[in-house]
Specification:
The chain is mainly β. The chain has 4 domains: about 1-25 and about 100-225, Lipocalin (Beta Barrel), CATH 2.40.128.630; about 30-50 and about 455-550, Immunoglobulin-like (Sandwich), CATH 2.60.40; about 70-90 and about 365-445, no CATH class; about 250-320 and about 320-355, Lipocalin, CATH 2.40.128. Helices cover about 5% and strands about 45% of the residues. Strand 40 and strand 41 (about 475-480) form a beta hairpin. The radius of gyration is 23 Å and the shape is globular.
Length: about 550
């Protein structure tokens, strides 16, 4: 990749320092999701209160949810900037120092989101296209590159745009590579399409770009597939279309690429989303009752629950999003085509409410802020609305109504500002186009807040012992400071089994015993259960296995 910049190395370092210091200290905190194996079966996922938007749909669970309260008005930090000619800009990602990265027209761009100033650009090799960037825990930037009749490339870059390592599929020609997923160990996962559009493969690379495995998988549901979602233990879930044109949902072992299960839920599927209780969520288009939001057991792939839409829904590019409390939001047709509704669903699959969607336009590129506000591109504008009432908070129109826009998924930055980008044409039939981007101002009073809690500063799930368990287990966790916490157990279907503890606790190490009984005092059946620790915006989840009676 060829890197260009309009300033010297020292000037660029000074600019990076300015970005980090001019924005809140929260921007400098690395608050990406962590995956930690505990006790063999237990894994945890932690979220920070002002976590950077570091990958497509915010996190590896693809929740599209930030815990940061975001823009509440259409005020801008600067006028829209040009990103040059080319295709629709990619989804953006934010680095630990506040820099925002996105690709457009065969170039990866680094910009200062507070001023819009370009810091550097890196051009793809050989005229290839570039995927949406992913920022790793150490600040490395990961992208894929692909083009017709060329081997595909996966590249890791340093924060200044210089290359760290590159992997090539050569001698195999790959017509297309998906956006990527990067786990806490730096392993890279994605999909690529072989020459002549013959077959998709999922693949994995290690943290140094070394090949780990390749597995043949169904075609991506979209030609521009979302990256796989990662389960709390690290395995992959993805959707695709098989040779018989059935949409499939599947789980792959992250270490070997082995397909652990593969199911045909019905309908055309979105990319998967991992809910807070560990269930795998997908949107399915088609005719009710086979359409709607479905939740699947991550261990078996079996359907746990489905909430069907009231009318036929078209298009699979419409994954659900999660609210800060864990409820699920989908937008789809109501009782007639074009009569669109906001469906709000509990983690256990209860349809909590439906309210009218406040637009007749597009509704698939949705993200969620820390107060539950949903942001979506619709009918040439970025709209913010309440999923509880449908009330519109604000609308931002980036161009005259006569223009034609194609929008990228927006991103909520660590200070609460929103980075938005789009491809603009003078008219929809115009052959020429150019990219633009802008940052919407953060809410008043949030730009000077102190550094947020790091992923380990609010609650730390230490472990569950014994695991597997013949009977009672002990859950240990740590609170670095006094906090309000809740410790709950869910079954594999996502239903609440037992509240182990809830309330205010002092700082320090704590433990709670679970005797294997539910809230009614009935012994739980053998199987896998989810232990959920929450404190403020931080949630940690892990699995514990109860053995059957013969092994107790």
């Amino acid at each position: 990749m060829k890197r260009t910049t309009d300033r010297s190395h020292d000037d660029r370092k000074a600019r990076a320092h300015h970005v980090a210091s001019a924005r809140t200290p929260a921007v400098r905190a690395v608050a990406s999701a962590l995956v930690l194996g505990l006790g063999g079966c237990l894994a945890s996922v932690a979220h920070a209160g002002a976590d950077p938007w570091s990958t497509v749909r915010h996190d590896n669970q693809r929740t599209a949810r930030s815990y940061t309260v975001a823009s509440q008005a259409d005020a801008l930090l600067y006028e829209p900037r040009s990103a040059g000619s080319g295709s629709v800009p990619s989804a953006a990602a934010q680095g630990p120092d506040g820099t925002v990265y996105f690709s457009n027209g065969g170039q990866l761009r680094a910009v200062d989101p507070s001023t819009g100033a370009a810091l550097w650009t890196v051009a793809a090799a050989g005229g290839r296209g570039i995927s949406a960037p992913v920022v790793g825990a150490d600040g490395a930037i990961y992208v894929s590159q692909s083009g017709a009749n060329l081997p595909a490339l996966v590249t890791a870059l340093n924060e200044d745009g210089t290359e760290r390592w590159a992997y090539s599929t050569a001698p195999e020609i790959a017509a297309y590579v998906s956006d990527l997923a990067v786990d806490g160990a730096g392993r890279v996962f994605g999909r690529y399409l072989e020459t002549q559009f013959t077959q998709w493969h999922a693949f994995a690379l290690d943290g140094l770009g070394g090949f780990l495995w390749k597995t043949t998988v169904p075609y991506a549901s979209e030609f521009d597939p979302t990256p796989p979602a990662l389960l709390p233990g690290g395995d992959l879930v993805l959707s695709g279309v098989d040779a018989d044109w059935n949409d499939r949902l599947m789980r792959l072992d992250a270490d070997t690429g082995t397909i652990e299960w593969s199911v045909v839920p019905g309908g055309s599927l979105s990319g998967p989303v991992v809910a807070d209780n560990g269930l795998v969520l997908v949107h399915a288009s088609g005719v009710p009752p086979a359409n709607g939001v479905g939740a699947f057991d991550p261990d078996t792939g079996s359907l746990v629950w489905r909430v069907s839409y009231f009318y036929t829904e078209y298009g699979e590019d419409n994954p659900p999003v999660l609210l800060p409390g864990g409820d699920i939001v989908a937008v789809a047709n109501g009782d007639a085509q074009g009569n669109r509704l906001i469906y709000r669903i509990s983690p256990e699959g209860a349809l909590l409410d439906t309210v009218a969607y406040p637009s007749t336009g597009y509704y698939t590129k949705k993200i969620v802020g820390g107060d539950g506000t949903v942001y979506v591109w619709t009918s040439m504008r970025l709209m913010a609305f309440s999923p509880l009432s449908g009330t519109v908070t604000f609308e931002y129109w980036p161009a005259p109504s006569s223009s034609c826009l194609r929008n990228a998924l927006p991103a909520i930055l660590s200070d609460g500002s929103i980075f938005a980008s789009w491809q603009r044409k003078q008219t929809c039939n115009s052959p020429s186009s150019f990219g633009e981007y802008v940052t919407l101002a953060p809410p008043e009073g949030t730009s000077s807040v102190g550094a947020p809690a790091s992923p380990r500063s609010a609650a730390w799930l230490r472990g569950v012992t014994p695991n597997p368990a013949p009977g009672a287990v002990t859950v240990r966790f740590e609170l670095p400071r006094p906090a309000t916490m809740s410790l709950r157990v869910f079954d594999a279907r996502g239903a609440l089994v037992r509240v182990l503890g809830s309330g205010d606790l002092a700082a320090g190490l704590h433990s709670h015993a679970w005797d294997g009984l539910d809230d009614r005092g009935v012994r739980c059946a053998a199987g896998t259960y989810l232990v959920s620790l929450s404190s403020g915006a931080v949630r940690e989840h892990g699995k514990v296995t109860l053995l059957d009676a013969a092994n107790r």
